Amino acid sequence: MYICECKVANCASEVDKNSDIPVQQFEEAAEAVKALTKHPTDEELLELYSLFKQATVGDNNTSKPGMLDLKGKAKWEAWNKKKGTSQEVAKQAYINYANQLIEKYK
């Protein structure tokens, strides 16, 4: 078992490394977050972004944006902090975190 701990409380989840997180469940969570009527904070959006990128792409191997690209740099740094987290663990963490935001902002 692996444990993924997000920066936000109650987002920790245990995932069996041999399990397959249903792609449909992941995609439904991503769509539900897009449909929120209230806007999550920038910090919450960065956490979602970093989990989504880690889940779909894996480790961040891109060049760090320049210092004038503040938004790009923040996104890059958030994703880079997830380096080493498996895509399956990141998918489950994304689903859990998205569900928290859906409850909070519905």
From TrEMBL:
BP-aspect Gene Ontology terms: fatty acid metabolic process; lipid storage
GO molecular function, one term: fatty-acyl-CoA binding
Annotated keywords: Lipid-binding
Residue ranges annotated for the ACB domain, each copy included: 22-106
Membrane keyword on record: no
Record has Electron transport as a keyword: no
Family matches, as Gene3D superfamilies: 1.20.80.10
Name this protein carries in UniProt: Acyl-CoA-binding protein-like protein
One Pfam match: ACBP
